[in-house]
Design goal:
alpha/beta; 9 strands; EC 2.1.2.2; Rossmann fold; purine biosynthesis; binds 5-O-phosphono-beta-D-ribofuranosylamine; 24% strand; 6 helices; seven-stranded mixed beta sheet
Length: 203
């Protein structure tokens, strides 16, 4: 399965995917990485691992639609089978989502539908939950709340700061994202309405 990965920053989730592919645990290849920020550290990781990458910045386009058209064009040109949002810090329009129906997944640092949108870890701390986590979901037109493929629970500890909690959640993101991609690549993810069944998954 050919992946197109959208990033905006550090790219540690991208690195987890690269590591899974390089160690033979993920039967996929990365056709293209697209960053909307030229300073994203994710791009350094692409250079190091010889992964095709491109920067497409919103400000280089007159409107969001033209920006998204360029994203769609690049992903189609790279013939991607699955689009992975791995720390891509923009909300994509219905137009983009409809271009790859049920072929876009996102990693979000909370147990959705709780704490969607920005600063999910801070929202969890402020709310006072004892357990939060991360979610890989299919991207639909609802923000951070499409059908759930996999979630991992992470405890919130009494002395947590946004930083310590984010770090604890991130370690789980790095496990569940490659796992969800593998399930997609193996054709085991069946979606019925809101519900996802992963054929043969052991929970
Ligand atoms: C992760 O916490 C991800 O869940 C969120 O943005 C962060 C990206 O981290 N959407 P990285 O760029 O993959 O290191």
């Amino acid at each position: 399965m050919k992946l197109g990965i959208l990033v905006s920053g550090r790219g540690s989730n991208l690195q987890a995917i690269v590591d899974a592919i390089e160690s033979g645990k993920l039967p996929c290849s990365i056709s293209i990485v697209i960053s909307d920020r030229e300073k994203a550290y994710a791009l350094e990781r692409c250079k190091k691992h010889h992964i095709p990458h491109v920067v497409i910045k919103r400000k280089d386009f007159g409107n969001v639609q033209d920006f998204e058209e360029e994203l769609i064009r690049s992903l189609r040109q790279a013939q991607v089978d699955l689009v992975v949002l791995a720390g891509f810090m923009r909300i994509l329009s219905a137009h983009f989502i409809r271009a790859f129906p049920m072929k876009i997944i996102n990693i979000h640092p909370s147990l959705t539908p709780a704490f969607v949108g920005k600063d999910a870890q801070k929202q969890a701390l402020e709310y006072g939950v004892r357990i939060t986590g991360c979610t890989v979901h299919l991207v639909t037109e609802e923000l951070d709340s499409g059908p759930v493929i996999v979630q991992a629970c992470v405890p919130v500890l009494p002395d947590d700061t946004e930083e310590t909690l984010s770090e604890r959640i991130l370690a789980y993101e790095h496990r569940v994202l490659p796992q969800a991609i593998r399930w997609m690549a193996e054709g085991r993810v069946k979606v019925e309405g809101r519900k996802v069944q992963v054929i043969g998954a052991k929970y």
